[in-house]
Amino acid sequence: MSSDEAIFLIVVAARLGIPLLIFRFPLPAILAALVLDAADQTIFQNHTHLDLTNYQGYDKALDIYYLSIAYLSTFRNWTDPFAARTAQALWYYRLVGVVIFELTHVRALLIIFPNTFEYFFIAYEVVRLAWNPARLTHRRVIGLVAFIWIFIKLPQEWWLHIAKLDFTDFMKEDVFGVTVDTSWGDAIGENLWFVGLLAGLAIAVVLIVRAALRAAPSPDWSASVDVNAHPVSTRIDATAATSAGLFDWDLLEKVVLTSLITIIFAQVVPGTDGTPLQVTFAVGFLVVANAAVSQWLSSRGHSWTSTIGQFVAMVVVNLAITVVYIELLRRSDQPVNRAATLFFVLLLTLIITLFDRYRPIRVARFDSREPNIQPA
Question: Is the pLDDT of residue 144 over 60?
Answer without folding.
Answer: yes
